[in-house]
Amino acid sequence: MRIxxxxxxxxxxxxxxxxxxxxxxxxxxxxxxxxATLELPExxxxxxxxxxxxxxxxxxxxxxxxxxVALSPLKKPPIPYSKIHFEGTRNVVNxxxxxxxxxxxxxxALGADENADTEYLRTKGEAxxxxxxxxxxxxxxxxxTMFGNGGQFLEFLSSLTTPYLTVLPGKSTKFQPIYVKxxxxxxxxxxxxxxxxxxxxxGGSERLSLGEIAVKxxxxxxxxxxxxxLPMPIxxxxxxxxxxxxxxxxxxxxxxxxxxxxxxEENAVKNLGLQIDKMKTLDKxxxxxx
Length: 290
Fold this sequence. Notes:
two-stranded parallel ribbon
C-alpha cells in the first residue's frame, strides 16, 4: 500500500515510518522533510508540505493518508493551535476526499473534546469532529502521553526538576504513559478494514502521577528525589501572567493541562492486538532505553 504520512519526520512519525516501510511504500511530508527526529530509511520519499496551505497538498498517488501533524501541548505555541489542529486537518481531510484516498488515519489526543478546558484539546476535538463528518474511511486514535526515543515529555519534565528536592505543579495529576513503538503497532493494526469508522483511546499499563514519573526519571539517573506539589492557584497566577508576556514559552493552557488527569477507562490496546500486561513500562524503558 502507498502511504502518505503528514508529520512523518516528527516523534511518532519517524517511528511509524521506520515500521511501515518494511511492508509499504511510504512518503513523509513536513515543513522540514530532511530534518527527521530519527534517521529514516533511504527508500522513504520526502515532500515539503504545509498543512495550512491546501494548494500544496496532493494525495492522488496514495491509497492511505496518516495525519499526524500537531503542535506540542508542553509549551505555548508560536501560532494558534486552531491553525494547525483544525484548519490543517480540514485541509488534509478535504484533499484526501478530493483525491479519493481509500483509508485515512487521524492522530488525536486523549481528552480531546470540543468543550475541553485547554485550547490544545479543544482544537483537537474540533478536528476529530471534522474527520468523523467526512466521507473518508477513517479511524482516530487518542493516546495518553507517549515516551520513547526522540520524545519530548520525559526530557521536558526532567528540565523542570531539580535534583533531590523539587516543586512541581500538577504533582498529583495522573497520566497513562504509553511506549511510542507500541503506539506505532496500534496505528498499523488500526489500518485493517475491520476498524473503519472507529475511535480508540489508548494508554499504557500503568497510571502514574506527574510526581511519580519525575521520581522514576531521577531514579534512572541513580538519584533520589522528593517531589512537592506547587499549589495550583499559584501556578494559575504564574501562567496567567506568562500568557501575556511575549515570547514566553508557557501560558494558561499549561495550567489547564496539568489540572486534569490524562487517563482512559476504555483502553483499546487489547482490541488492537496488544496485551496490556506485556506492554513496556516506563521503568523498563528508563532502564534499557530504546
